[in-house]
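Why do we care about 3D structure at all? Because function follows from shape, and shape follows, mostly, from sequence. That is the central idea of this module. The next example makes it concrete: a single protein chain, its amino acid sequence, and then its structure expressed as tokens.
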Amino acid sequence: MLPTPGEAPPWAWAVGVVFGVVTLAGLVAWWRSASRAALWVAVVVRALSGLLPVLGLADPIPDWMKVATLITLVVTAVGIILVRPALGRRAGEPARAT
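And the structure:
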């Protein structure tokens, strides 16, 4: 989502692409089979992907990148909270009405 700073190691883009592909693959597998394991994979990889840019907040980067990183972190946390009920539910089990 965010461009890597010029001083970033060359593998930084590759890590982002791999995390994105693994997240999408986990979500597709979950969508097709309702597998909790697939959803867990997607959630864990998305959480790691959301946390990695936080390491760069101490570096001298533009303020807009810091804000975008924090927004990405918040959106990731909200997304994980929203899928939390599905993480504990077995495949084929209906969602509880609240």
